Amino acid sequence: MSDNPQHTPRARRGRAPDVFRPGGWVPMREYGEDETVDFAIVGTGAGGGTLACKLAEYGFSVVAFDAGPYFRPLEDFASDESEQTKLYWTDDRIVDGANPLQLGSNNSGKAVGGSTVHFAMVSLRFRPEWFKSRSLLGYGADWPLDWREMWNYYREVEQALKIAGPVNYPWGPPRPRYPYRAHPLNAAARVLAKGCEALGIGWTETPLATLSAPRGLAHPCVYRGFCVAGCSTNAKQSALVTWIPRALAAGAEIRDLAMVGRVEVDAAGRATGVHFHRDGTWHFQRARHVVVAGYAIETPRLLLNSTNGQFPDGLANSSGLVGENLMAQSNQAVWGLMDQEIRSYKGPPSLAITEHWNYEDKGKDFFGGYSYMSQGPLPQLWANTQMAARGLWGARLMSDMQNYNHVAGLKIVGEMLPQENNRVTLADEVDQFGLRIPRVTYSWCDNDKRLIAHALKFMTQALEEADARDIWTQEDDTCHLNGTARMGSDPARSVVNADCRSWDIPNLWICDGSVFPTVGGANPSLTIQAIACRTADRIRDLAGRGELDQPARRRYAAQTAQ
Amino acid sequence: MTEFDTDRGSLNAGLAIAGLLAGSVLLLAAGRAPANGHRNGRAAALPPRRSSRKRPTVVAARRLNRAAGVLAASVLADSSVEHYRGSFKNKAMYTPLIVSASTLATSLHGTADARPAAHWFRDATYLTAAVSGLIGTGFHIYNVGKKVGGFSWQNFFYGAPIGAPMAILLSGLLGFCSERVRESRKGTRPEIFQLPAGRTMAAVIGAGLLGTSGEAGLLHFRGAFHNPFMLLPVTLPPLGAALLGRAALAGPGQQHRATRWWMRVLAAMGFAGVGLHAYGVSRNMGGWRNWSQNILNGPPLPAPPSFAGLALAGLAALELMEDHPDA
Amino acid sequence: MHDRGRPEPRYPGYDVLTKRQGPSWNEQTRRVVSQRLAVPAEPRFFTPDEFRTVASVAARIVPQPDGRPPVPVAALIDEKLFRGASDGYRPEGMPREREAWRQGLQALDAEAKAAYGAAFHAIGAARQDGLLARMQSGDMTSPAWGRMSPQDFFKRRMARDVVLAYYAHPTAWSEIGWGGPASPRGYVRLDFDERDPWEAAEAGSGDAVEVRRINRHVG
Ligand SMILES: Cc1cc2nc3c(=O)[nH]c(=O)nc-3n(C[C@H](O)[C@H](O)[C@H](O)COP(=O)(O)OP(=O)(O)OC[C@H]3O[C@@H](n4cnc5c(N)ncnc54)[C@H](O)[C@@H]3O)c2cc1C
Ligand code: SF4
C-alpha cells in the first residue's frame, strides 16, 4: 500500500486514486474554497456519487465530499472480515425503541462510494404500484414520481452498472435485457430454487451489480464471496468504480476524509456552502447549491445539526418531518442444514431470488411485500448470528459451527411501513468533531410483524421442501435504511419535491435513500441511483429554462392555484 | 508455487492444452505431405507407404484425417479441462478423454498413411468416436435437464455444454468419411453411402459449422459479447456453412474459390481464437498467475480450434470435388 | 455445557494457513493475518484482573479442544479495545465499547461474589455457565450494571466480541472447513457437493487417508 487512506486524504494536488491500478492516479480538477461551485454534494454513495457524475457530465462544477477514505480496492482490501470493518460507518450512534436497529457493518458505509462499497449488489426495480401505494394498494404514501419515467431511469442505471441479470425477468412489466448475463448459481441458490419449484412459485437469478464478463479494466467476479466485506476484484459495480471515475473524468472534484458538519444558510434563507473538517481543521466551501446525500441517518443528522436563528428546528424542516418516517427493511431468515455440502461462502451471497410475494397480493394478511434470497454468511457473521439470534454459546455453538458448510438459508427483504415515531433525532452526546450524535429510534408496527410472520412461515415450508433439516428462524434483523426526508407533492407533508429539492430552501437538495416515502420489498440502491439520474436531468432542464433558482414552493403554489 | 506440486488436476489440464498444441503441430507437419504432394520417408514411426503417386482420393482422405485430428485434439483438451472442472465425479467422464486421444492418434496415423485402403482399426476408432459423441450428447442433455431449473438459460450457460460432445461426433464422422474416400477405386466416383462424397461431406461440415457456431454463440452471449471479436465465430462460420451448402448443391465443374478462401479464413480464426481466449484469460482477476481458476472460469482455450478442424475438412471436401467433379 | 474432549475433526489435516503463499491470498491479507497471529499475549487495555476474567468468559463461550494451540481470544479482544475499534452503535443505556467492557466485567464479578462469594474466574466452569446463562436471559440485578442491561451486554458486547475474535482466527477457520481468504483466486465449483482442489475435504467424503492427504495439500 502506498499510503494510508484512512489517515491522509488521497484526492488532492490535482489527482485522485485510480481505482483500477494499484498505486495509480487519475487527474482531478480542483476548486478553491472561495470559488463558488455550482454544487457541493455531501456524500458520494448511491445517491451522491451518481448525482456528482451526472451533474459534472452536464457541465456543472461539482465538489463532492465524503467523510470516508478513498480506497483502491485492488490494493487496500484484504480478504478478511475484521479488517474490512474499515468500510463501515462506526462513529458513535445510539439505538433505542422497541426494536433497536443494528447499524455499523449492517448498515452504513463510510468511504468514497458510500455503502455501495460493501453492499450485496442486489439490484432490483420497484414494483410499479409501489410508487402509488397509498392510492393503489391502500397503505403508506404516494410518491410524486411516475413508474414509467422511473422505468427509463432504471434502464440507465442498469446499463451504467452492467447489471448481470436473467435473460427474462419473471415479474412486473417488461424490462429491457440486462446488459450482462446472470452468474452461475451456487448450491445455496439452488436450495432456494428447489423450494420455490416445490411450492409452485417463480424464482430467478438475482440481478446483481457485479460483472459476469470483463469490463474495461474491471475483472469479472471470481466468486470469492467477500462482497459485504468489499470486493478486491473490482467486479462489484460500486459507485467507487463506476460513477466516481466518470465524475472525475467530467471535471468533478472528490474530497475524501472530509466530514461536513454544517450547511450554512444566509439571512435570505439560501444555502451558501458547507463547513467541512479535513486535515484536522474546519474549512468552508462556497456553493450555489448544496446537496445532502449522506444516507438515511447522516442526512437528517446534518440537517438537524445545521440549525440557525431562522431555522431553529433544522434545515428544510418546516413540515417537522426531517428525521421522521425512518424505514428499515425487515431482514428475517430461515436457516437449515442440508445433507449435501453447500459451502455458501462461494459466490455473491444472494445469487437467487423470488419476488413472488412482492407481486402477489392474494393470500396476505398484511400490507406491502417481500422478496427473499439465498444467503452466504462468512464465519464471523455466521457465528455471531448463531450467538445473537439463536442464543448459542459454549459447546453447542462450537459443535453447530462445524455444520457451517452444510447450512442453507433464505432471507427476506421486507417492506416496513413508514411511521413518524420511527426516527432519527439528536442525542446530547457529541462525536470526535463535536457534532451531536444521532439517536435512532425504531419499533415494528403490527403490519411489520404480520409480514414477518408470513415470510418466516412460508420460507420454513420452502426449506422443508428443499429437504433441509434442523430448521430455525432468525427473527430479529433489519437492513437498508430509508425515509427521514421524504419526497412528496405537498410541502406540509414532505421534505422535498419530486426533484429532490427542499420545499423550504430553494438551493438545498436531498438526494439519497432519505427521500423514499415507502420502501417496498426490494433492495433500494437501484432506485436511489435512478432517482439521482432523474434529479440530474431535472436540474439540467430547470437550469436550461432559467428556473434553477426559482423556489420549489413558488412552483407548487402556481400548480395548486391552477 | 505449492499449487504446482499439489494441484495435479490443473497440471493435467495444462498438459492437455500442451497436447492440443503439440497435436495440431504434428497434424500439420504430417499433413504437409499430401498438401504439396512431396514426401521424403523420414518419419520411421509412420506406416510404410506403398503408393507414392499423388492420388486425389488419398490426398483428400489424409486431409480429412488431419481435420478429424484437429477436432479430436480440441475435444481432448476441452474435455480434459471441463471434466477436470467437474472433478470427474462420474467415471464415464473419462470416456471423451480416452476416445478423443485414440481418435487423435488414429488421425495422425491416417494423415501419415498414403495407402489407398481403409484401415479397420481407424474405422473402428472413428465409429466409436461418433457413437460416443452421440451418447455424450445424451448425457449432457440429461444432466442439464435434471438440474433445478431444467432446460433454462442458467443451465445451458453453466451446466454440461450440450454442443460439446458433438465435436467428437463430427471428428468421428469426418474420419469415417475419410476412410470411404480413401478406399474408393480409381476412376470411380468417391462415395459415402452411395452419395457423392465431396458434396455429402460439404453438407455435413456445413451443419457442423452451424452447430459449433451455435455453441460459441451461446457462450459468447453468456459473456454479453463484451468484446467485438466475440462476434466473429457467430458470423463467419454460418457464412461458411452457407457457402458449403451452395457447393453441395452446385453442379459439377465449379471452382468454389470464394468458399475455399472462406475456409482458410475460418481455419485462421479457429487458431487465432486460442490467442484471443488466452487474452480473455489474462483479463480475469490475477491473470495467468491465477491460472488454476482462470483457465476454468475464463474462455476455454481449446474450443476455437474446432472451427479450424471443420474448415480444414471443408477444404479437403472442396478439393476432392475439384479433382472429382462428380464427387 | 461442558468441555469437549477431542472428537474426530470434521476436516482432518486441514490448515487454512497452508494456502497462505498461494494465489488465494494477496499481500494485504497476509499482512493483516500475520499481525493477528502476532497479537501480544499481555493485555494493553485490560488490567491483569480484568484480562483473567475475559479469558475465563471466553473459555466458556468458545470452549476450545485440547491438543492444539488455543486461539488467544482475550488477547484479540484486548487488542481491538486498545485500538479503539467500535461497532458504530450501542443501545440506549450502554456506554461505548471500552467503558461497557469495564463496567460489564465489574458487574459480572459482583454477581459472582453475590452468588458464590468469589470472583468469576474462581468459581468453576458449571457456576460460570450458570451465571452467563442468567446474564443472557437478563436475570441479574447487581447495581454494578448501572443503566446497562445485562442482556444487551451479553448479546451486543461481550459474547459478540468473544465470538468475533475467535472466528477471526485461522485456527477457527480450519476447524469449520471454511476456504479462508480468497483473492485474487476465488472459486470455480459452486454447486452441491462441489469442492475446488483448494478447499478442505470433509471427513466421510472419501476414505480417511485420502481426505487427510487432500487436506494437507490444499493450496
Ligand atoms: C451490508 C449491506 C448490504 C447491502 N446490500 C444491498 C443490496 O444488495 N442491494 C441494494 O440495493 N442495497 C443494498 N444495501 C443498501 C445500500 O448500500 C444503500 O441503500 C445505499 O448505498 C444508500 O445510498 P445513499 O446514497 O443513501 O448512502 P450511502 O451509499 O451510504 O452514501 C452515503 C455517503 O455519505 C457519506 N457521508 C455521510 N454523512 C456525511 C457527512 N456529514 N460529510 C461527509 N460525508 C458524509 C458517507 O461516508 C457515505 O459514504 C446494503 C447495505 C449494507 C450495509
Ligand atoms: S464474489 Fe464477486 S463481487 Fe463478491 S467480492 Fe467476490 S469477486 Fe467481488
UniProtKB/TrEMBL annotation, chain A:
InterPro entries: FAD/NAD-bd_sf, GMC_OxRdtase_N, GMC_OxRtase_C. SUPFAM superfamilies: FAD-linked reductases, C-terminal domain (SSF54373), FAD/NAD(P)-binding domain (SSF51905). GO terms for molecular function: flavin adenine dinucleotide binding; oxidoreductase activity, acting on CH-OH group of donors. Coiled coil: none annotated. Keywords: FAD, Flavoprotein, Oxidoreductase. Residues 418-532 form the Glucose-methanol-choline oxidoreductase C-terminal domain. Gene3D superfamilies: FAD/NAD(P)-binding domain. Residues 108-328 form the Glucose-methanol-choline oxidoreductase N-terminal domain. Belongs to the GMC oxidoreductase family. This is GMC family oxidoreductase.
From TrEMBL, chain B:
Residues 35-55 are annotated as: Disordered. The chain crosses the membrane at residues 12-30, 124-144, 156-176, 197-218, 230-249, 261-281. This is Uncharacterized protein. Keywords: Membrane, Transmembrane, Transmembrane helix. It comes from the Bacteria. The keyword Membrane applies.
UniProtKB/TrEMBL annotation, chain C:
Pfam families: Gluconate_2-dh3. Residues 1-28 are annotated as: Disordered. This is Gluconate 2-dehydrogenase subunit 3 family protein. InterPro entries: Gluconate_2DH_su3. It comes from Bradyrhizobium zhengyangense.
